[in-house]
Amino acid sequence: MAELDHCSSTQLIDGDGEFNVAGLENFMRTTKLSNCGLSYAVVAIMGPQSSGKSTLMNHLFHTNFREMDAFRGRSQTTKGIWIAHCVGIEPFTVAMDLEGTDGRERGEDDTAFEKQSALFALAIADIVLINMWCHDIGREQAANKPLLKTVFQVMMRLFSPRKTTLLFVIRDKTKTPLEYLEPILREDIQKIWNSVRKPEAHKDTPLSEFFN
User: Fold this and answer.
1) C-alpha torsion sign, points 18, 3, 43, 29
2) Is 109 exposed, middle or buried, given 0-12, 13-18 or 19+ CB atoms closer than 10 A?
3) Higher pLDDT among residues 206 and 160, named by residue
4) For residues 37 and 180, what is the distance between their CA atoms, to the nearest angstrom?
5) What is the pLDDT of residues 59-116, one digit of tens each?
6) What digits encode the pLDDT tens for the residues 174-209?
7) How far apart, in whole angstroms, are the C-alpha atoms of residue 194 and residue 164?
8) 9-209: which CATH number, 2.40.50, 3.30.300, 3.40.50, 1.10.3470?
């Protein structure tokens, strides 16, 4: 339990988009991030609301992000963007937990926060985990499609795109073998990339220039 106390979970940006300057300063001081210079990594997670993002981060990185109580029904647990120190991982790693997409609390028309938080995460994260349901792969109206479109669109808005690693996490895997799922997922991703409006400079830029 003491280990979890050291991860100093902090709300970096609240649900209204306000940046927590004092909280970040306290986080840097408490976790000694300020001593690391540029020797640290950032891993962020995105995905639909109530898909288990916070739970996954807690299991992988020994963080203590608040998790949804399934017995109380699906609801928005993470509001805004939270960060925490991944205890016991070298180099110093910051985990970033983003508010879930397509939540009923914001409504289907309010995608501004989603886009801004995705842009923020892509600008600073080395690795972005995309948490998605297995049954969404290959479906035209899948929950992850608007999210991926947002990710690709905002990547174009970064001043100098850097190669970010996208790690797809498939939850509730069906009996379909992974070797069948992977090409369908890759094709889905490529289709979304092709459909995104790109500035002149990147009209013919392949996906691999922006992402691993």
Assistant:
1) positive
2) exposed
3) 206
4) 43
5) 999 998 987 654 444 444 668 899 999 989 999 999 999 988 765 444 555 567 877 8
6) 888 989 999 999 999 999 999 988 888 888 889 988
7) 18
8) 3.40.50
